[in-house]
Amino acid sequence: MFPNVDPFETGMLDVGDAQEIYWECSGNPSGRPALYLHGGPGSGCTPGSRRYFDPAIYKIVLTDQRGCGRSRPHVEKATDLDVNTTTHLIQDLERLRKHLRIDRWTVLGASWGTTLGLAYAQTYPQRIRAMVLASVTTTARHEVNWITRDMGRVFPEQWERFAAVASFDPIEGPDLVDAYAALVFSPDPGIRERAAREWCAWEDAHISLARGYSPSRRFEDAPFRLLFTRIVTHYWRHAAFLTEDRLIQNASLLNEIPGILLHGRYDISSPLETAWKLHRQWRASVLRVIDDGGHGGGTMHESIVEAMNQIGSV
Q1: Which domains does the chain have, with CATH numbers?
Q2: Residue 111 annotated among the catalytic residues of the structure
């Protein structure tokens, strides 16, 4: 990865609904515009996100999606999420593009950022120059069911603890994601904290197959855990507010956009099948399987840098 660089410009953009999103630009002010879309949803960007881009080539744009990171206000009550949907995030990106006077930009997305990147690109394909998508997911209902229920067959001990917090009953009880989405807004702070802690422990468990894995240090922060869990359960319980498999079915809208898909062979969180199906429908895409990678890890970071260097010449 490239050495870290400091932003040369930052700001808060009013996107309506009493929301402001944080944005920053670093690298080359006259370079090729490139947008980074963080994962989660709800994780926000970190300084390390800039390091995927050659600062001599790219004008690097980072933004924290509404409700998280340095964007304001944070999600504090369930009704705050009424104005936090995929459609809202897509329009936020368009407002940011216009604010920065960018005609077209290259998009790099990771994990949830691939879902948002695909949804944005399919809405505004004329604004996308190229894409790099790492750890591909579309947040479809069947993917959410896999990651929250079916994967218990792979990690039975961890899943039993995860499900027990919500008193999950697969026959009588509510959906597991729905249950957690309610628990993190409980009036009891102890219930909120336990739910957030166990949700993040499950997140750590199912990404643990990657070589060099270590638990996320960000999950050690209690306010971050709670905010992250509130937002991710909101998007997952609604399957990203998208009709099932829409992003795969509409992939032909991207056929004039070059793309590189990077996916770990050992990605149990988001099995390779989704990236493969997307690649088959998106004729301008290249799929690279990272044989030592999971949902990240291995040589995924190096592969992202290589892809961004390659796509920068397109």
Answers
A1: 9-138+242-311 (3.40.50.1820), 142-240 (no CATH)
A2: yes
Residue 215 confidence class, pLDDT cut points 50, 70, 90: confident
CA dist., res. 25 & res. 141, Å (int): 35
Of 43, 263, 295, 303, catalytic: 295
Maximum pairwise Cα distance, the chain: 58
Please, are residues 163 and 148 in contact by the beta-carbon 8 Å criterion?
no
Name the token pair of 282.
Answer: 């998106």
Three-class DSSP category at 186: coil
Average pLDDT, the chain: 94
Of 267, 269, 270, 303, catalytic? 267
Question: How crowded is residue 265: how many other Cβ atoms within 10 Å of its Cβ?
Answer: 13
- Whether 14 is catalytic is no
pLDDT for residue 170? 58
Give the model confidence (pLDDT) of 74-114 as tens digits: 999 999 999 999 999 999 999 999 999 999 999 999 999 99
For the question of residue 267 being annotated catalytic, the response is yes
Catalytic one among 111, 135, 269, 285? 111
Residues 6 or more apart whose CB falls under 8 angstroms from that of 220 comprise none
> What DSSP character marks residue 252?
G
